[in-house]
Specification:
globular, about 50% helix, alpha+beta, single chain, about 10% strand, 5-stranded mixed sheet, about 290 residues
Length: about 290
């Protein structure tokens, strides 16, 4: 998906047509909020108040312009992203809105707002440890003892991913049927903390976002290292649920909606990670994969 976004670069260069100066978004994109305890919850829908979306390059990076007004974060900061590709992707989200602005569909914009405002006031180390902590309850590490068909399905689908991660990072992860989950060695945590430390703050926000969606650090690593596609990672994260659906049937539209929404959020988070990672770091990881 990120490759398709990068191919927007040539088309998107025409968006670099506004001067750096200009009016700020007097309409506002939400009131200035006090720092909340949790990350942002997208506001309700509102009427689209702009005609054109463009990007321009400023001193701090790339900015998003709605008509001639510059986009700002919920805390009133100038909305500035570090790369042109990410700016194009965010601009595409705004341009794709129809009569109403549905912020809950704009995952890249929300992630950027979180990075710029940092509402939970976490530093890099806290982001890394929050992601690694998911190993304690990682989806692919928890196994059932029955029925045998599901036991075999989990073994066939999850074991190869765990084996890949163990080989890729030189660690031990394992799996368990115990309610307490597998015992993760301290060295495994240290190695993965060191690996995640190679990412910048923006990319780490995206990684934690994906980990939260999939309830799995192992599957997220597979995504960021290009071992898994979004569709594969989502299916693996929902393996037991999909098994139950196959056995008992679907519930009207609810399961399909949930599946599509999870795919959208996971895809956006994965794209965000790659667009926020330095190209040299990404190439380095690919060569080692």
């Amino acid at each position: 998906m990120w490759r398709r976004c990068l191919r927007l670069r040539d088309v998107g260069r025409r968006l670099l047509n506004l001067p750096r100066s200009g009016l700020t978004a007097s309409e506002g994109l939400g009131p200035k909020l006090p720092t909340p305890i949790r990350a942002y919850v997208p506001p309700a829908e509102r009427k689209r108040f702009y005609q054109n979306v463009s990007i321009s390059q400023g001193e701090g990076g790339f900015e998003i312009n709605l008509d001639h007004r510059k986009l700002r974060t919920p805390q009133g900061k100038l909305f500035t992203v570090p790369s042109e590709a990410l700016a194009i992707a965010v601009a595409t989200e705004w341009d794709s809105q129809q009569d109403t602005i549905k912020m809950y569909t704009m995952h890249l914009t929300t992630l950027c707002n979180t990075c710029l405002d940092n509402p939970t006031q976490r530093d890099k180390d806290q982001l890394i440890r929050a992601a690694v902590k998911f190993l304690d309850t990682d989806t692919v590490c928890y196994r059932v003892e029955e029925p045998e068909t599901l036991v075999e399905l989990q073994r066939n689908e999850w074991d190869p991913v765990i084996s890949w991660a163990e080989k890729r990072y030189g660690v031990e992860i394992g799996s368990s049927t115990s309610i307490t989950g597998p015992s993760i060695p301290a060295r495994t945590r240290e190695v993965l903390v060191s690996h995640l430390a190679s990412y910048n703050m923006w990319a780490l926000q995206g990684i934690e976002f994906v980990v939260t969606q999939l309830k799995s650090l192992v599957l997220t690593l597979g995504l960021t290292d290009l071992r898994l596609t979004v569709e594969q990672a989502v299916l693996l994260s929902r393996l037991e649920e999909e098994y139950q659906i196959q056995k008992w049937g679907n519930i009207e539209w609810a399961h399909d909606y949930e599946l599509q929404e999870l795919r959208a959020r996971t895809a956006a988070g994965t794209l965000f990670v790659h667009l926020c990672s330095e190209s040299t770091a990404v190439k380095h990881k690919l060569l080692q994969g």
